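Appendix B. One record, verbatim.
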Amino acid sequence: MIPVKVLSVRYLANVHPSLCKALGAPENCPSLGLITTDSDDATYIALDEATKAAAVQVCYSRSFYAGAANASTPNAGEVIGVLAGPTPGAVRSGMEAALSALERVGFDAAGEVPFLAHTVSRTGAFLSKEANVPEGTAIAYLIAPPLESMYALDAAMKAADVKLQKLYAPPSETNFGGGLLSGSQSACEAACAAFAQAVSEVAANPKGV
């Protein structure tokens, strides 16, 4: 697994209502936690974990164009995420859960081709909204470079009883692609395995000859 680098974390209490509103935080959530890392998709999975561990919401999240290798400043990385909660303690608890998840979630590599094939066994509020599924649904979170992502996504959907809930059509802001698939946990794991195998196939033989 390619380790995720956490670049910056900061907490804000009693945030100005205008800023909270602009960031999408509910009126009863004046405390915020901000994080940047060098891996957007791993961070989105981690932010979802925060919503399961504490009374927080992901009020804002955005990937940066071109990815971490082209970050504009040392602490910018590839993504920013903002947690909103009713108290500083809730936000800190949520952020700690996210940071813990980032120690377990990351991209793998097939040669020089990075990819993410991760089963979320039970979605929280954030990924449930992203995938348009009920909270607690199992999903396969699949990401790879543009061609590899589409080739491998097809393989994943043919390998298991899963449903495409969201397509990340290439190129994304970070020049990748992929999708979110729903199904049973075992089906999502089978889809992830097929996705990884297909990415490896393209990495080993890009032209298919």
